């Protein structure tokens, strides 16, 4: 396969811009919000980087084009592919499977087949874009087969993969009928990054259980094919973050501070403003949060209008059945709470099913007394980090689910088990009544972590490790085109399971030749 021109290529399900097709057929675009593009943009701009991804539009086909200082390579998806690859296999199979089966995952062979063919398309686009000996960074659960296909097409390049969501325990992962192929897909990378050490351990346990490859500490040895040398694949945690300084600066802007004051006035100047900000997703524990808040009103521990809650629930994956059901349930619950405890012009819960610009979010964070993050399972939860970055005034309190990746780092938050409604209520009241000295001390501790470990540091850490991996010589090419899922590995039954003797629940800790602190 002929090499491309980009030293550095990112492959993600979505392009980092929102594209509009104007009436005359021309394109315009706006950079999408989100940390990934912010962290990678300087590197992309410096090295003439490429970004392979879906535009978010049905059937959008376009030649690669330059935007935001990088080359964007749109991958087209048809209506059927969106239904089977994106809504189906990615978001109704993998998403629930990787989030503790909060809702039952669906397993459909037609979805899997489309997932493999779409992954192949992304891998081919990356192979065409990357320069000889270049680096490709593949992102997230939608594209887990890309590393192995890309490795076959372009054995000369370094391949990193980062999973933005949890990686499930092997007992859950093995429900997946295509578990072997997914593990093999990921092992095409040189470095497989996860949010938490526990995710990396889960992945390594799955490798032990499902393959007969040698696993030592964080490293898997994959035997070389076609006379290529053996490869080492490393699995490790790299907790993602936000552009902390930019967010802090935004939240300090006079117009944002003015808007924060205005929000409180518009809400009737409550004594206590509770805030939830999420994609409308069943992993976020929005129903649990509403239940706890509803009971606090019922008990009389909180009263309207002295207290109220704002819940921003941004629309997400609206054609997936479980998301439709969740929306109905949340909206019925909000209606019930407001019916029971609201008054004319004074809602108990202000529910907003919209996405807002970063300025409005920053103002909400500055306005809120207590931020509620109640996820039942969450890879990281960047909302918690945004709240902390916004609170340079050291005001506010963060109630944080222990089932978020962020809880590993944000140890000064008030942690909760969102399934424990009584415990959650007690912690919310503790946050509401916390004295200023303690809340300032906690916020200072939270800010120390978030301001130092920003998304730039995350990207530098990951790419630093990836740079240390040694690719095979560039002149070797595979003798055949990749065929995913056609080599069934040995079954679980005929293979011993070494994990039973050596469970690994800790972050692998071997020494690395780097001066950077690992996150
Ligand atoms: C999570 C995933 C991302 C995804 C985002 C929004 O954060 O890890 O990969 O892009 O949700 O979901 P959507 O389905 O709208 O891309």
UniProtKB/TrEMBL annotation:
Gene3D superfamilies: Glycogen Phosphorylase B. It comes from Georgenia deserti. Residues 510-519 have a biased composition (Polar residues). Belongs to the glycosyltransferase 20 family. Residues 470-481 have a biased composition (Pro residues). Residues 469-519 are annotated as: Disordered. Residues 499-509 have a biased composition (Acidic residues). The lineage of its organism: Bacteria, Bacillati, Actinomycetota, Actinomycetes, Micrococcales. It comes from the Bacteria. Coiled coil: none annotated. This is Trehalose-6-phosphate synthase. PANTHER family: BCDNA.GH08860, TREHALOSE-6-PHOSPHATE SYNTHASE.
